Amino acid sequence: MNDLPPNDDSDQAGPGDPLDSFEEIVSAKTDRDPDLAVIEAGSRTLRTQGGPPDADVPGRPEDPEVDKALREVEAELATRWGETKLEPSVSRIAALMDVLGDPQRSYPSIHITGTNGKTTTARMIEALLGAFELRTGRYTSPHVQSVTERISLDGAPVSAERFVETYRDVEPYVQMTDAAQEYRLSFFEVLTGMAYAAFADAPVDVAVVEVGMGGSWDATNVIDAGVAVITPIALDHTDRLGETTGAIAAEKAGIIKQDATVIMAQQPVDAAQVLLKKTVDAGAAVAREGLEFGVVSRQVAVGGQVATLRGLGGEYPDVYLPLHGAHQAHNAVVALAAVEAFFGVGAQHAQTLDPDTVRRAFAAVGSPGRMEVVRRSPTVVLDAAHNPAGAQVTAEAVREAFDFSRLIGVVGASADKNVRGLLEAFEPLFTEVVVTQNSSHRAMNADELAAVAVEVFGEDRVQVEPRLPDALEAAITLAEEEGEFAGGGVLVTGSVITVGEARLLLGKG
What we know:
The chain is α/β, with parallel strands linked by helices. The chain has helices at about 20-25, 35-45, 65-80, 90-100, 120-130, 160-180, 185-200, 240, 245-250, 270-280, 325-340, 355-365, 390-400, 420-425, 445-455, 470-480, 495-505; strands at about 110-115, 135-140, 150-155, 155, 205-210, 225-230, 260-265, 285-290, 295-300, 305-310, 315-320, 370-375, 380, 405-410, 430-435, 460-465, 490-495. The strands form 3 sheets. Strands 4-3-2-5-1-6-7-8 form an 8-stranded mixed beta sheet, sandwiched between helices. Strands 12-13-17-14-15-16 form a 6-stranded mixed beta sheet.
């Protein structure tokens, strides 16, 4: 039995003794998953900053024994394939589900794929279902700061204690599956099994599940979801999913099951054609944004926007959404249509859900690390855009929501992304850009990123700060150059990991 897939090029070393400073921890070679390394680094050095952690983004457990138990689980998970090491198969996760008794079949599911907007849409669906008094389980990835964020019950991440308990419950079955397979279960496969088991144990009334990557062979795709949600498809992970949006759509269409209802966001033409063909082949019903449902109108409001949404059953006026950007209104209407479909609106009856309940749910939605303001004077915004399409909608949202006199970008990206396209999307928006790198072994070297940035922005607009703390300090200093009331701002972007680390450094969690 092998631990690594064929042609694995990982060169990470084993973890050493605990380190005391953030920069030492995040720069140390480690065999931990990059997301987990960030958690350890930030929580140990910044726990005392900024007050209590946000409910949706937990910090380290305060109880030393619980913290120790969680670290042990994180370390064990980190010995497995990381999320960038993939074998296109669901055979291992299916085997795990079999020995667990197929917990994923004990509740109905809503399955979400696409390129951008999946996590926020999942949060919105969860909020709507919870407002209608259903017990929810939500599984999303990647996490912003803590691995426990990935598994939520009743709208909140599971506690560290429950996360550890769930892992220990499934561990014998994971080992049994490992022994019977050519390759051990991956980090993501084990987490998926944990989520499905936790949802069955709760038990939940409905699970909201976001794919990790693609669709057909994603580990989450052992559920038979009655509602399949396809958020906007764009070019990303092209080495694994395909070089065109149509090819990527073919992979993502794998979540569409027989007789399901497909909720389709606005798509490129080639992607829409592929998705519609799959829908017909599966005998599924389809509702398309812009035809069967859509955003009727929207306007900027304090802290977000107010929209009129047209769902499958009719219009919902005066919906306040505490999130910035037109893309969030589109995410909201997709989420609304998905929940309507789950309740049978449009198929079994033609009437809206209770509008006041819908408004109340949307008014309480949050999405950490997505156009999130974490500081004022100067304003610092975090957004996890990591591909050109995401960067474009983020740039549009910033222009609409803020009136910055100068905006300084802090960009740390992964080496396997289209960083030129990302930077080009932000070029008209950023006065200057500070390029940096996060702690992940996937991070693009700051100097290499700077070379691309100079080609896009020109040498005079680019500053290089390899350490993220220094990059944040430099950007805030640049934003303050015009004076306290001049309207300078900072946007930190390029990667979920960059945003998670920045969030810790700025005292959030």
